[in-house]
């Protein structure tokens, strides 16, 4: 494998890992409640 | 007393002006659609198809689209952050400068001052105006977010911030040009590079101006209207990151089979297909939010606009990736299918959400009951039917045209001359023009309803407005 | 983390946006329009052609006409050799377009004689019945301004002589846009390379058809020939037609392959069947013979 191929695979794999981490973090059990809190705020009346 | 703190005057002004420019965009669109079937409707030098078409597209994107973005973002950001606008004065300047920019664009384009780059036709002095305008807007919104009283940021704010950054980067890079005179410049890039930069801009302008902002509006106005929260905030977050990451790779699907390097085309095609996931993430989120609430499609006219709008978004984001596949692109690109695709996005998805947002806003910012819900329903059907006539006729036309362009005789020669294919288009172009007229009628009903709301609508307290929305 | 920190969030979002941007938009500058793309025969636009190009831009011709031929069989047959990156190195901006309401123009240069373009631009429907192209007769009334081209030359880095610049004073915008169109796609000798070769034996498939059969073929003549050779073959831009002066096969080759040096375009894109119909129409119908 030449440098270009290693770079190519490395970048692709790196991007995949970042995506997997975002998904795991967002959907972790620990953060379950935390992650959904913001949407209930929309039920409160603001000025209206 | 909270109400007095939020700046609603500026929202009113932007709502009004965005509607004015929206009307101009549709009106010019109808005119150019008739020029296509009857060339004697070209009145040179100013009123020819070649000069009017960019006015149609830019009035639609920058006048109507961006105008609605200004109105809704300034409304949403104050409430999502529970804090008044950072600088009402800057927002006044933004309003004034917005109209100056749109008028300057329309006049210069009519005079033939154009860079020719699609959706970026305005010459360099107006590019500078657009940048100033956007910076004034972005600073105001971002500063409001920074001094917010609500710590946790709702998904609409995410899409809003991404849009602020994205549009700025795209516009500035594609605007790189060397002035020759006050109204003439040459692109800083040449040939294939220029094409690649332009469609990186062109396609992502769709992402950052015509996808992220309507999604911000959708995620805000849907729960506000239905009074139930969205299905999943976490799903919206995953969709968000995937969407803004993947969109930027796809510009070259506008350049399949051109001299742009092959690997860029392949990446664009692959990422376009992958984009179906985050797009449909939002569509599913919208549908699942309606769980147990589907009766509101009947009872609540706003829900109808929002859900039909997100449905068109879903269709748009399936059709788009399909067109980004090399083999299908070879067949369908450059035909009338393509404007049909674009107009499903603009007339169906973006404008449906914009109409819903404005219907939600006007009673609240004017303190009046909506003048007539039946008229709002009439408008819904007019714009839906108008858009379907528009798109379906040209999808059929595009397939016919593509088939004729590629048809070959048994001996390997072409079956049809170009003119033989063009004359087949006329009936479909007539139906399209008629569809445009129906859509225009819908806009006129919309404007009439809003004018009557402001003039004659019964005074309403906040509570009655909210109740009426669900009546 | 970023859910509560807008500045950090915006930095991360910018990062997400920049990855695809860097790879598919910035990186290609390393390969595109470099020495590897260079084609020796591709030259900058002359002063007149550049003025014409700017008029093409001003009038928004790119809204209806593309300028890139894709490497697809039907497309190459219709328009000519597919476009190469090196052909566009002097194009600022690029004008590839995105919609073909009218035909592609990447290879329009040299396809028709100048005179055809002058008539077509002034009155498109007199040359191509039922086209929806707007008329641009008024371009012929506008004189060019030689002063502007000096500044354009500086920006574009094109070398124009004083003589060339001064010569613009006698030209109209119509002259310029036609000069520009006649240059399009001629940077590489594709025409010679792609000269149509007729495969197999030429044999008139309509030998002996009667007058009535040929009557509908008049439409083909009107659509493709009458603009230059006159409605009754009396000649106009092109010469008067005398079918009897040529053998059937000669006539077929003239129509199918064209006579580029005399301004006669190749009509191979009509397909051999229609060309044979035209051969019979021109050679026999007008003479009123049932052959």
Task: Summarize this structure as a short list of keywords or feature phrases.
heterotrimer, A: 48 residues, mainly alpha, B: 471 residues, Cytochrome C Oxidase, Chain A, 2 domains, two-stranded antiparallel ribbon, 2 strands
For the largest beta-sheet of chain C, the strand count, sense and barrel status come to: none
Secondary structural class of chain C = mainly alpha
> What form of chain C results from the Cα inertia axes?
globular
What is the CATH class designation of the largest domain in chain B? Mainly Alpha
Span between termini of chain B? 27 Å
- Most extensive chain-chain interface: B-C, 96 and 87 residues
Walkthrough of the structure:
The complex is a heterotrimer of chains A (48), B (471) and C (291). Chain A is an all-alpha fold and 48 residues long. In chain A, 6% of the residues are buried. The N and C termini of chain A lie far apart (63 Å). Helix content of chain A is 69%, strand content 0%. Chain A has helices at residues 3-26, 32-40. Chain B is built from 19 helices and two strands. In chain B, a hairpin with a 2-residue loop joins strand 1 and strand 2. Chain B folds into two domains: 1-188, Cytochrome C Oxidase, Chain A (Up-down Bundle); 224-471, Cytochrome C Oxidase, Chain A (Up-down Bundle), CATH 1.20.210.10. The mean pLDDT of chain B is 95. Chain C is mostly helical. Chain C has two domains: 47-193, Cytochrome Bc1 Complex, Chain D, domain 2; 211-285, Cytochrome c-like domain (Cytochrome Bc1 Complex, Chain D, domain 2, Orthogonal Bundle), CATH 1.10.760. In chain C, 43% of the residues lie in helices and 0% in strands. Chain C has helices spanning 6-26, 47-58, 73-79, 114-122, 124-127, 146-156, 162-167, 173-183, 190-193, 211-214, 218-224, 226-229, 248-257, 272-285. Chain C is globular, with a radius of gyration of 24 Å. Chains in contact: A-B, B-C. The A-B interface holds A 19, 22-23, 26-27, 35-43, 45-48 and B 2-3, 5-6, 79, 82, 150, 152-155, 220, 223-224, 227-230, 232-234, 237-238, 241-242, 245, 364, 462, 465-466.
